[in-house]
Structure formats: structure tokens, C-alpha cells
Automatic annotation (TrEMBL):
UniProt xrefs under SUPFAM superfamilies: Chaperone J-domain, RNA-binding domain, RBD
Pfam families associated with the record: DnaJ
Coiled-coil region: none
Name of the molecule in the record: DnaJ subfamily c member 17-like protein
């Protein structure tokens, strides 16, 4: 029964009167920390990892809902009061005192006077029932909403069960050397192309994250368009490779294809298109001015195509040396 669970404790927060004074910011911070700790991907050998993570999400939803949280705080308060009264009665019920209290309670029942303990228990049961109804309401509200960070294959054993729609999930990675990306920065970059449901960042050693978009269209729009910092560009790939192939099927014009689709059936056509544009750009000898920045001076450079990976190297005007940084190719550079 959910009413017996201390949702503050589930999130690693203090309960009781101290928990009732916590702010939404404290709850959000505790949830993010616990989510990284209890995520099923971090505990592959724990058979209860999925259920523990689901309980964490349920407790978070209850504490974020003002009405449900107030009912839960009232439930804890009444429960603490009953426990204190019971402990006080137990400490006094010894010897003659116990007999006197027993006689008094019997006379009170005989006189049809309300029993304080029974009244407190009745109030506790009433609030517990309201809390249970409120939890059911929250679960019904989130019934159609997938849990961020879950892999549907892990949850249901196949693609037919519930869980995350993999076509809305993106795998994002970057190099260890260069500027790092926080959860807030990733959310800011991807939110330009649609609503972001969740961002789950791996540990610092992996330099990767999962980004869950609200729609499939939003996920497709980010591929090839979210670059990040030039000093440490992002590699954005779909969690489900099929979405990349689907994005090729809806367009008949090679000219409108983007570098994000360097895989699937249309790779050869896109490669030919890129080479044609590079030859055209080389003929015009379009110069690009590199602003004063990481190289410490302003220089004139040409774009030079290097291999078939969709990347460009920067070289100086004499083509004498290749710079250490790469710029991800974008079609607009050759229009």
C-alpha cells in the first residue's frame, strides 16, 4: 500500500516536520541525484532495479503535486500524533495506573463517549484513503506518459510492451577533451527543436547522455542541427536506427537532405551530392574568415574536404599545415 511508504525517505530526504518545509528545488535536486543512482542501466544485476526506479518516480510525482503532498504531510502528522499518544499511554499503564486507565476507558465506552484513540485512528484511515485516491489519480494521469530513461526492451522483454518510445530518444556523446555539457546545457540546446521530456547524463568518464524528446518530429529535427560548442561538438544519434531510414523515405530531392542522414539507403546519393557541392565551392575558392579566438589571431582559411565522413578540416592559405580542430559539415556552408 502506497500510504505506508514514506515518500520523503524514498528520495533520501528528511521526513516529518522538516520534510514538510522542503522546497520544490530541494525535491528536484534529490530526485535527480537518486535517479542517477537507481537507474536500471546503472544496476544491471539488480532484479528489483526497475521497480525501485518506478517507486522513485511515483514518490517524486506525489511530492511535486501540491494537493497530494499536503494530504501526505497531514497523514504523517496524524500518524506521529497517534504514535506519541500511544507511547504516552503505554508508559503510564503500569500497576494501579493501568487499572485506573482501563476502568476509565471502560466507563467512557459504557457512556458512549468517543474514544480519543479510536477517533485518531479513524482520522488516520480517512486521510490514508484520500491519499490512496490521490495517488490513483496521479497514476491515471501519467498512465500514457512513458517513464524517462527506460528502455522498453528491458521493461517488457520486447518492442510490443510499454515503456519509452525509442524513436523519441537520442544518444548524445562528446569528447573528454574540451568544454563539458551539463544537463541544463543539453536541455537548452535541444529545446530549440521541441519540448524535451528528460535528459539523463552518464558519468563523466563516458561523456554521453540520453535525451528524450516529446515527439518523434522533434527528435528528427535535432539530428544534424544540434552541434554544441565548436571546441567539442556533439554527436547526436537516434536510439532507434530505423528513424534515420524513415527520414529519408519522405523526401525525393537530394538537395534537401542534411548531413545528419549519413546512413541508410540514401547514403550514396547524399555522398555524391556533397562531393558535387565541394567541387563547386572549390572552383569559386570561397574564403572563410576565422575570427580571433582559440588560435590567437585572425587568418584566412579554405574549407578542405577530408575523407567521406562528412567532416571538414581547416587549412591555412598555403595548405602547409592542418589545424587540430574539425568543423562538422553543414549544407548551408556551400549555398
Amino acid at each position: 500500500m502506497d500510504a505506508t511508504v514514506d515518500h520523503y525517505t524514498v528520495l533520501g530526504l528528511p521526513s516529518g516536520e522538516e520534510g514538510a518545509n522542503l522546497t520544490d528545488k530541494d525535491i528536484n535536486k534529490a530526485y535527480k541525484f537518486k535517479a542517477l543512482e537507481l537507474h536500471p542501466d546503472k544496476r544491471p544485476d539488480d532484479p528489483n532495479a526497475a521497480s525501485n526506479f518506478q517507486q522513485l518516480r511515483t514518490s517524486y510525482d506525489i511530492l511535486k503535486d501540491q494537493k497530494a503532498r499536503k494530504l501526505f504531510d497531514d497523514f504523517l502528522r496524524v500518524k506521529r500524533d497517534n504514535q506519541r499518544r500511544q507511547a504516552h499511554r503505554d508508559s503510564q499503564r503500569d500497576g494501579k495506573r493501568r487499572k485506573l486507565v482501563s476502568d476509565l476507558e471502560r466507563r467512557e465506552r459504557d457512556a458512549f463517549s468517543p474514544d480519543p484513540a479510536a477517533k485518531g485512528k479513524e482520522e488516520e484511515d480517512r486521510i490514508a484513503k484520500q491519499l490512496k485516491d490521490e495517488i490513483a489519480r496521479i497514476r491515471a494521469m501519467h498512465a500514457k506518459k512513458v517513464v524517462p530513461g527506460f528502455d522498453s526492451k528491458k521493461e517488457s522483454g520486447g518492442s510490443g510492451g510499454g515503456g519509452v518510445d525509442q524513436e523519441k530518444v537520442l544518444k548524445v556523446s562528446w569528447e573528454k577533451i574540451g568544454e563539458d555539457y551539463s544537463v541544463e546545457k543539453l536541455r537548452e540546446l535541444f529545446s530549440k527543436f521541441g519540448e524535451v521530456e528528460d535528459v539523463i547524463k552518464g558519468n563523466k568518464k563516458k561523456c554521453s547522455a540520453l535525451v528524450v524528446m516529446a515527439t518523434k518530429q522533434g527528435a528528427l529535427a535535432t539530428i544534424g542541427n544540434v552541434i554544441g560548442h565548436l571546441s567539442n561538438p556533439l554527436l547526436v544519434l537516434p536510439l532507434k536506427p530505423a528513424m534515420a531510414a524513415d527520414s529519408w523515405g519522405g523526401s525525393k530531392s537530394i538537395e534537401r537532405e542534411t548531413p545528419s542522414k549519413l546512413f541508410g539507403a540514401g547514403f550514396q546519393a547524399f555522398e555524391d551530392c556533397v562531393l558535387a557541392k565541394l567541387q563547386k565551392a572549390a572552383a569559386k575558392q570561397a574564403k572563410v574568415v576565422i575570427p580571433k579566438g582559440k588560435w590567437g589571431l585572425t587568418s584566412i582559411a579554405y574549407f578542405k574536404y577530408k575523407s567521406l565522413t562528412g567532416l571538414l578540416y581547416l587549412v591555412d592559405s598555403q595548405d602547409s599545415a592542418t589545424c587540430g580542430d574539425m568543423i562538422q559539415f553543414k549544407e548551408a556552408s556551400f549555398r
